[in-house]
Amino acid sequence: MLYFKRILIAGFLLLVAVDAAAVYTVNGVRKSFDISRTTTAPIIDGKLDDEVWRTAKAIDDFHQTSPTDGASPS
């Protein structure tokens, strides 16, 4: 009985891992983006007027998974 429970748990974890990996792909292509390094730390104050933020690349290609997979981000 213990062996059966272990197999059942392993199968469940495998299914969850496959589903989680699918979130990061669109049409079979893995999404990625570049992160640029800076020599000065940004000031985290909610304002984007710091010089460091001017060199940061904007990321706007989001993929919503909840409540509807693939719907426009809400």
Task: Describe this structure as you would to a colleague.
With 74 residues, this protein is mainly alpha-helical. The protein is 35% helix and 5% strand. It is built from two helices and two strands, in the order H-E-E-H. It has helices at residues 2-23, 51-54; strands at residues 25-26, 29-30. Strands 1-2 form a two-stranded antiparallel ribbon. The longest helix has 22 residues, at 2-23. The radius of gyration is 20 Å and the shape is elongated. The relative contact order is 0.10.
- SSE sequence, one letter per element: HEEH
Structural class: mainly alpha
Q: Nearest-angstrom radius of gyration?
A: 20 Å
How large a portion of the residues is in β-strands, by DSSP E?
Answer: 5-15%
How many angstroms separate the termini? 45 Å
Helix content: 25-40%
Q: Give the beta-strand count.
A: 2
- Mean of all residue-level pLDDT scores: 75
Chain oligomer state: single chain
Which consecutive residue ranges, at least 5 long each, have pLDDT under 50? none
Shape summary:
elongated
Quick tags:
74 residues; two-stranded antiparallel sheet; mainly alpha; 2 strands
Topology (SSEs and partners):
Elements: H1 2-23, E1 25-26, E2 29-30, H2 51-54
Antiparallel strand pairs: 1-2
In short:
This protein is mainly alpha-helical and 74 residues long. It is built from two helices and two strands.
